[in-house]
Amino acid sequence: MAHRLGKVSYINSLPLFCAGSVDGFEIVPEHPARLNALVGEGALDVSLISRWAYSGEIAKNYRVLPRYCIASDGDVMSVKIFSKCALCELEGKKIFITPETGTSSRAFRHVIRKLHGIDIFALERAEIKDADAVLLIGNRALAFAPSPYAYRYDLGAMWRETYEMPMIYAVFVARNDAYDAVAGPLSAYLDESLELFRKKRSDFLLRAQRDFLAYSGMDIGMETLDRYYNCLIYKLGRGDFEKSFNFVSEHGKEDF
Hints:
Elements lengths: L2 E6 L16 E6 L1 H9 L5 E5 L5 H6 E11 L6 E5 L10 E4 L6 H13 L7 E2 L7 E5 H6 L7 E4 H9 L3 E9 L3 H21 L1 H16 L5 H10 E4 L2 H18 L1
Parallel strand pairs: 1-2, 1-3, 6-7, 6-8
Antiparallel strand pairs: 3-10, 4-10, 4-11, 5-8, 5-9
Helix pairs in contact: 3-5
């Protein structure tokens, strides 16, 4: 029986899956919050999940595959708050927070509380058309027309400026009873995919452009895509991975 492998359904995960099908794996594409839920139910053998979803029962039942991730060390472009006012003026305002997020909303919450003493989770929720601020991730953030939101905040940039470390958005986890069987083949597949993306970058940028159009109904320029993938990191050095990953573990219980 094939192992079920959860894949983020945004274009940010494309470089990790350039090698196509994986022998012995069935790929299941979903948005991050849904992948988190499936892993929580034990329905996936291995999956990308939101970094901050790795706690509680998931941490008991799944192990993290080190170094492989979706991360940035500065701007990320696809995790943003669009706001009609400065973040320091959000108190008493209305906010839309996408239900697709599992890490980004909590990371924004943490940084904004630290910098401005405002808890975005305590703000009144509203639909986008009625919101003073909009938190979006993935393809939807890339496709969002920012007018009339004069202020735009990039989570990766805020995280780097505040904590001087990379921001990890998603990690691979494997169920304890499957880890030994999947860790080696999956690591080899991910390395192969990342090398293919490096060698045939132009081809995969075209594929990302097509996928983005199919998802959003909007075109995205090749220069924007090239800049976007330059922002993203898919394999961190062990030290950077551990530092960023452990930061959440050390602060998560009370701060997130």
